[in-house]
Amino acid sequence: MGVCPGREESAGESHSNRSPKGNRPTRRLLNQVAWAAVRTKGSYFQNLFHRFIVRKGAKVAIWAVAHRLLRVIWKVLHQKVHYIEHGPRSAHPQAIQKRKRALLRQLRQLGYSVQITAIQDAGAMQTQ
After folding, report:
1. Less CB within 10 Å around the terminal CB: N or C of the chain?
2. Is 51 found in the same domain as 95?
3. Which residues contact 5 (CB under 8 A, 6 or more apart)?
4. Domains identified in the chain, total number
5. pLDDT value, residue 14
6. Taking residues 34-57, what's their average pLDDT?
7. Is residue 125 domain-resident?
8. Do 69 and 97 share a domain, yes or no?
9. Crossing angle of the two packed helices 24-38 and 58-79, in degrees rounded to 10
10. Are residues 112 and 66 in the same domain?
11. Are 17 and 72 members of one domain?
12. Residue 38: in which H helix or E strand, if any?
């Protein structure tokens, strides 16, 4: 397909990380599918894209999403597993706790004294 990075090495030294050419129409189709997956609100692929775009830029990030999509497609077709969209990883309770601890640590490092209290009716706050 041409979406995986190349690994040309000799004696542990990398000479080229260029992706192979692949099938042009399939690459274009996979690129469009990746852009559509990125624009789907609340999807895992949107979250993946936003993590990569900060470090790599839009073009490399979309190819990373395309590569992940291709791996998912292969697994669904060849191993006949069902794909379940879990949404962004930040919705998991462990990720939320980890994020809270990190933000508290950052505020304390900036010299703030922080006391955390939970909002009782968080669902009502989001609908307003």
Report:
1. C
2. no
3. 17, 18, 19
4. 2
5. 66
6. 90
7. no
8. no
9. 100
10. no
11. yes
12. helix 24-38
Residue 105: domain span:
89-118
Residue 68 lies in a domain: yes
Helix, coil or strand: residue 58: helix
pLDDT, tens digit (0-9, with 9 covering 90-100), for 71-124: 888 889 999 899 888 776 556 778 788 888 999 999 999 999 888 887 876 555
- Whole-model pTM: value is 0.60
Please name the helix (run of DSSP H) or strand (run of DSSP E) that holds residue 8, with its range, or none. Answer: strand 8-10
Q: Which structure tokens are listed for 20?
A: 């192979």
In a domain, 128, yes or no: no
When mean pLDDT is compared across 5-9, 44-48, 97-101, the lowest value belongs to: 5-9
Place of tokens 């995986």: 4
Query: Could you tell me if residue 123 is inside a domain?
Result: no
Residue 114: phi and psi, rounded to 5, are -120, 135
From residue 23, give the alpha-carbon distance in Å to each of 1, 17, 28, 49, 120: 6, 18, 9, 23, 55
